[in-house]
Automatic annotation (TrEMBL):
Signal peptide: none annotated. This is UBP-type domain-containing protein. Gene3D superfamilies: Zinc/RING finger domain, C3HC4 (zinc finger). It comes from Ulvibacterium marinum. GO terms for molecular function: zinc ion binding. SUPFAM superfamilies: RING/U-box. InterPro entries: Znf_C2H2_type (IPR013087), Znf_RING/FYVE/PHD (IPR013083), Znf_UBP (IPR001607). Residues 6-91 form the UBP-type domain. It comes from the Bacteria.
Length: 91
């Protein structure tokens, strides 16, 4: 995979970053599952668990809703990720 220097259109389209409202995976909470890290969807603002978590809710959400960009919801991390272009960007 070649490194892209230019930000993709999904990342460029984000004017203000949506922060997590609650520090928990909305889907895992329903089923009592646990997670490793949290991600917040930049299209709808939902916070879900990362790919290191058993349920990978953020990836599933992105694929089924065609919501391209998430941020890390971890308090000391400032990066976003586009699933479509597999591109990371700092903010
Ligand atoms: Zn993109
Ligand atoms: Zn989850
Ligand atoms: Zn979403």
């Amino acid at each position: 995979m070649a490194l892209r220097l230019k930000k993709c259109e999904h990342i460029q389209a984000i004017e203000s970053v949506r922060k997590p409202l609650d520090y928990e995976c909305e889907e895992c909470i329903k089923t009592g599952d646990s997670w490793v890290h949290l991600r917040t969807c930049q299209s709808c603002g939902i916070t879900l668990c990362c790919d290191s978590s058993p349920n990978k809710h953020a990836s599933k959400h992105a694929a089924s809703h065609e919501h391209a960009v998430i941020i890390s919801a971890e308090p000391n991390e400032k990066w976003m990720w586009c699933y479509v272009h597999e591109q990371i960007a700092r903010y």
